[in-house]
Specification:
The chain has 15 helices and ten strands. It has 356 residues and is α/β, with parallel strands linked by helices. The strands form two sheets. An eight-stranded parallel β-sheet has the order 3-2-1-8-7-6-5-4.
Amino acid sequence: MKTYIIAEAGVNHNGDVNLAKKLVDIAVKAKANAVKFQTWITENVMSKTAPKAEYQIVNTGSQESQFEMEKKLELTFDEFIELKNYCDENSIEFLSTPFDFESADFLINSLKLNTIKIPSGEITNAPLLLYIAKHHKNIILSTGMATVAEIQQALGVIAFGLINDKTSPSVEAFERAYISEQGQQLIKERVSLLHCTTEYPAPIDEINLLAMKSMENVFGLPVGYSDHTEGIEISIAAVALGATIIEKHITYDKNAEGPDHAASIEPLELNKMVESIRNVEKSIGNGIKIPSKSELKNREIARKSLVASEAIKSGEYFSHANLAIKRPGSGLSPFYYWELQNQKATRDFNIDEEIN
């Protein structure tokens, strides 16, 4: 199965819809499966005194509040309609992450997206999770900063919403929905998980790619990787470990002004990442250990046979002294070396002649 590659445009458009289209072009040229943005109304998401994250301060060089920064990066719903149409025209899937109810409603009911990506920061936002789940869309749930218990709680809310349970929402009701046969079935039909380290850029020694396998074993769901590291090698490694989705931030210029450009990859890197992932997919195979087609022609050349190390006369015994193991492997296998000992030759053999 092919890895679903999401080029995360995020907020790297800097609030300019034309720059957003440029990011779409970059994703299309690289042959990514989707390009993803972030949709929010700043007043609905944060207070005016909300502080910036450390990486946001470093990358923007500004002491403005997070509210002020996000307001400048916000795109209007009309601009998102324009972007969605632009993606449709260029045959790439448009995705966006909602951070509030109004944005979720817009993506689901106005843009009619089939898939909703829920970001790591919203994994404990049970009301938003429930609202999205009730619309029966495919859900990609990012799990940065989360424990296994928190992921299970989130999946319980999603299960409750997918079931359309008519009881009142509660922690207990979510648990019941999660462990129910119907809830588990619906989660498996609708939900994929993304492992993630929520830091920009993420330190290599804190990536813990094996957590993908743990999540897959615990939840029985497809697991991918949302990559915030510098470079492309960790995304490629994640695919080799079985990631079904790769999400990677993209930019037109890592040195551009804005909070996420520095932790993003530029067009040539994205091209190389997509190409490398597709090559890794081809290399994974079916897991059955048998010679490949290209190997078969080399087998006789690379392996060895039993040969006479000196002239052997008919009736003479084979022994350590007159047997050698040499290429090519077109004769008797060296596996029979011991069985030949003290057997008589039935004909003459010249030096280096294969024993048969």
